[in-house]
Amino acid sequence: MSDPRTIGIFLFDDVEELDAVGPWEVLSAWCTFWPDDGWRVTTFSVDGQPVTAAKGLRIVPHSSAAEVGPLEIVLHPGGQGTRPLLRDPEHLDRVRAWHEAATITTSVCTGSLVYAAAGLLAGRPATTHWASLDVLAELDPSIEVRADDRYVDDGDVVTSAGVSAGIDMALALVARLVSPERSAEVRRYIQYDPEPPP
Amino acid sequence: MSDPRTIGIFLFDDVEELDAVGPWEVLSAWCTFWPDDGWRVTTFSVDGQPVTAAKGLRIVPHSSAAEVGPLEIVLHPGGQGTRPLLRDPEHLDRVRAWHEAATITTSVCTGSLVYAAAGLLAGRPATTHWASLDVLAELDPSIEVRADDRYVDDGDVVTSAGVSAGIDMALALVARLVSPERSAEVRRYIQYDPEPPP
Predict the structure, then answer these.
(1) Which structural domain, as residue segments, surrounds residue A87?
(2) Which run of H or E residues covers position B31?
(3) Which of A15, A18, A169, A188 to mutate to probe the B interface, most B CBs <10 Å?
(4) Domain with A89 in it: what CATH number?
(5) Is residue A106 included in any domain, yes or no?
(6) pLDDT tens column, A104-123
(7) Is B109 labeled as catalytic in the residue annotation?
(8) Which residue among B28, B60, B194 places its CB closest to the CB of A58?
């Protein structure tokens, strides 16, 4: 059997916790219980050092950006930490390089603001956290901003709405990469039959 | 103003990632944006050292059990790591001591198996991950096992169904501690309008 293909979740200071860990749960449960599907998921930060997330949780990434290896899919979460990143030319270069090397470039929440600043969303449909829809349009007026979509699958770029939407996007990714049946099995494992209080 | 009351999320090796981080997201967003509600949330492990969660994510707790201070609310997540814990007399003593000192003792997923083993659920209604409902009944046949509830609020003990159910339970906790309006505001912040793929 060939080596598994890798999904990399990027971690950074002030990443929103659930933006990263929601998709991590979905994707890592899938990769753990169905290894024959041929995928693995990992986390990485620029320098491989622990990050302090937006609400104060500290997470230790599995590796640095230099050590993570080839990524078939990249996931950029959102959070307050995206604000400095979207003005950081070095980070935007990095994101463009990931996109060129990857098959699918995905984001959760305000991760899409970084993609917009890097020019990845030009002329494409995309979404973000409800409170940042205006910022997304301002960063690149050629983006077709989809305010009502839970996630937007535009082929090689997939963006999600705010925070918890990353769970739905990750399940949709499993459906796309394997089958709707597999996605339903992962959903059953995490018992995702949401009943938000009114 | 008096010191905020503290909610402590217990971390341990092989804790299921979303069991802990789902409620963390809800509760930490609430405590960050509405500090006047008078609550704070923190994470702790027995010895304060980083834990490796069930799917391989490493999380650094804020403190040890000895240093965390008085907890008004304790949250015990689930995950494979609960299996050794529910046979560990020292941990069961610890859990009973937390319950005696706290106002509300909560669990997500198989966290309730530990509570059952500690005798906290005797004669009470409770729930757990769908795959562990039988184990819950075996651990203490006096438990009224609720297979179809997303979470069970029995006053000073609140148990949840599997993994993602902790998000709903945490939102319900905010509604109970403050108001349904506050819970709806937190839900809006995390854009929790789930659309699981079919």
Answers:
(1) 5-189
(2) helix B17-33
(3) A18
(4) 3.40.50.880
(5) yes
(6) 999 999 999 999 999 999 99
(7) yes
(8) B60
